[in-house]
């Protein structure tokens, strides 16, 4: 946590500085912005931006960069601020690409382009930093494993319940059979006793 509190302002400082410079002195950035805007409008088939529109675009980009940099530095929605800075860095990388330049301008653009790529990577990493909390994929896999364990326990419980019911039913049937057998034995015994008494009575009458 302490390292994040130190690292975020360090990362944001470059963005805040560049944003302030662009907002205060848009003319210094207008040439690169104009060329980048021309590439975009040419691809879209729209009319090129005027000088005033280019200046306004540079200032707006600078102000947005400053605001997002400050938010990242103070830890106000840091992930959102970092991802916003990453998005704001993309057009800078586009206008500073060195592939269409030559000579000294190509070398200068290459330095800026590499810097933009590095800042883009840093802000993306800061934007996906979960501060030690588990990510979505971990939570999904953990929930799936928990659901599987719960289903397995439920299945085992159901099996035990079926076994208990079957055991009780078998015990009940066995007990009923034993009772019926005892009742039959008692009835047979009573029948034999009655037959003996009948024979004795008949023998007494014959005498």
Automatic annotation (TrEMBL):
GO cellular component entries: membrane
Region of interest (Disordered), residue spans: 157-207
Protein's cellular compartments: Membrane
Keywords: Membrane, Transmembrane, Transmembrane helix
Lipid bilayer topology: Multi-pass membrane protein
Short name of any one Pfam family annotated for the protein: DoxX
Name recorded for this polypeptide: DoxX family protein
């Amino acid at each position: 946590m302490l390292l994040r509190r130190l690292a975020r302002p360090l990362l944001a400082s470059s963005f805040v500085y560049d944003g302030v410079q662009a907002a205060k002195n848009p003319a210094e950035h207008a040439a690169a912005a104009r060329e980048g805007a021309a590439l975009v409008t040419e691809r879209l088939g729209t009319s090129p931006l005027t000088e005033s529109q280019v200046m306004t675009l540079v200032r707006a980009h600078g102000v947005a960069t400053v605001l997002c940099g400050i938010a990242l530095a103070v830890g106000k929605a840091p992930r959102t601020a970092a991802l916003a800075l990453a998005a704001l860095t993309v057009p800078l990388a586009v206008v500073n690409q060195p592939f269409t330049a030559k000579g000294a301008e190509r070398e200068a653009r290459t330095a800026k382009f590499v810097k933009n790529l590095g800042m883009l990577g840093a802000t993306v990493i800061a934007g996906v930093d979960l501060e030690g909390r588990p990510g979505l994929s971990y939570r999904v896999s953990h929930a799936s494993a928990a659901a599987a364990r719960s289903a397995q326990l439920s299945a085992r419980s159901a099996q035990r319940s079926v076994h208990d019911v079957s055991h009780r039913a078998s015990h009940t049937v066995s007990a009923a059979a034993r009772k019926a057998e005892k009742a039959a034995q008692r009835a047979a015994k009573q029948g034999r006793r009655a037959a003996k008494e009948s024979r004795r009575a008949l023998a007494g009458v014959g005498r």
